[in-house]
Amino acid sequence: MTGRREFFRQMGAGAISVALAHTSSAAESKPLHGLFPIGQTPCTPDNKLDLECLAAEVKFCNRGGVHGFVWPQIASGWAGLTRQDRMDGAEAILAAGKGGKTALVIGVQTQGGDLDGATEYAKHAARHGADAIVSLPPETADANAMVEYYKTIGKATDLPLFVQTTGDMSVDLVVRMFQEIPTMRVVKDEAGNPLQRVAEIRERTAGKLSVFSGNGVRTMITEMERGFSGHCPTTGMADVYAQAFDLWHSGKKREGFDMFGRLLAFDSIPNAGSYVLIARGIFKEDTITRPMSVPASQSGAGRRPAPLDEAGKKEIRDALNTYLKPYLRG
Q1: pLDDT at position 25, please?
Q2: For residue 258, which of 275, 276, 282, 240 has the smallest C-alpha distance?
Q3: What share of the chain is helix, strand, coil (3-state, %, to 5)?
C-alpha cells in the first residue's frame, strides 16, 4: 500500500510541476493572443531580400494596433530563403519592432527537419529579442520523432513556443506535446478540421494552450465563437482584422461582425491581397513578394499571384480610399 501511495504521490507531483512550468517559465512580456499576421517576404526587382520593406511591415503592425507578427512561415515562402536571409530578416524585424506593442514571432523550421539548424535559428531569435518562436512540423509521420523534434527546439531557449500542425496531426499528439514541452504556449492548428478540434484541445489542456487559426482566416467570426485565441491572416489588412477582434472581444460583437464583413467584401476583389501592401505604401511599387513555397509533404503548390494590370491596381486603391479609409490605421 505504501508503494502505491508513493507512486501516486510522485505522479501528482509530476503533473503539478508540468502545470507550473506552463504558467511560470518563459513568462511572456507581450500577450500571445489576437491578430498575428504571417509576414510576406519582399524582394527587390533583382530578387534580393528587401530588409527595408520587411521592417516596414513590422512598423505598420505597430502603428495599426496589430497584436503580433510572424515570419517566416508558409505564406512567407520560407523554404526559398537562404540561411543568411533568415538571419538578416529576423534581425531587421526585431530591430524594427523594438519598443513596440506588437509581439514578434520568428519561424525556426528547416528543410528536412534539421534540428541543429532549427535550434540555431531559435537561439538567434532569443538573442535578438524575439517574443516567441514557431516551427512547422518536420516531414515525418512518426509521432515520437515529432515530439522529440519539438522538445529539442523548446529546450533551446525559454521563449514561448508556437507549434504549427498540418496534415493528420491528431489532438492526442497536440495534447501530448503540451504535456511534455514546458515552453509550448500556442498551437496554430491547421490539421484535420480545426473548427471541430478547438473545443477538445482547450478542454484537454485546461485552457492553458492557446489555439490559433490559419488558412487565410476566412471563418474568423465562427473561430472567435468557438474559442480560438488568435488568427493568422496575411499582413496587408491586419489592422482591420485587429479591430474586428478587439471589437468582438470587448463585447461589441455586432460591430466586430460588421468590421469583418468589410474585409470579406474587399477580399472579393481579384488579386486584392497580392497588391494591398504596395497600395498602402508599405512595399514599394517595384517590390516582388516571394512566392509561397511549401515542403513536399504538405498540400498545395507554391505560385506567384497573377500580375495586375493598371485597371486592377486602380480598383484596389479606389476600394481602399472609398470604402475602407476610415478604418485604416497603419
Answers
A1: 42
A2: 240
A3: 50, 10, 35
Query: What is the pLDDT at residue 2?
Result: 41
CB 129 within 8 A of CB 102: no
Which pTM does this prediction carry? 0.89
User: From CA 201, how far away is CA 208, in angstroms rounded?
Assistant: 10
Using CA atoms, how far apart are residues 170 and 167, in angstroms rounded to an integer?
9
- 13: its cell numbers: 507531483
| Residue in the structure block whose three cell numbers are 478547438 | 198
Q: How far apart are CA 240 and CA 263, in angstroms?
A: 7
pLDDT digits (tens, 9 = 90+) for 49-105: 999 999 999 999 999 999 999 999 999 999 999 999 999 999 999 999 999 999 999
In the chain, what percentage of residues exceed pLDDT 70?
87
DSSP 126-195: HHTT-SEEEEPPPS---HHHHHHHHHHHHHH-SS-EEEEE-TT--HHHHHHHHHH-TTEEEEEE-SS-HH
User: Chain-wide mean pLDDT for the chain?
Assistant: 89
Return d(Cα 277, Cα 283) in angstroms, integer.
Answer: 5
The answer to whether 124 and 87 have CB atoms below 8 angstroms apart is yes
Q: In which element (H, E) is residue 35 found?
A: strand 34-35
- Of 291, 294, 316, 285, whose CA–CA distance to 53 is shortest? 285
Q: Give the separation between CA 204 and CA 147, rounded to whole angstroms.
A: 18
Which of the two residues, 294 and 176, has the higher pLDDT score? 176
Question: Which pLDDT score is estimated for 246?
Answer: 98
Do 156 and 182 meet the contact criterion of CB atoms below 8 Å apart? no
C-alpha–C-alpha distance, residues 66 and 124, integer Å:
24
Contact 23, 209 (CB under 8 A): no
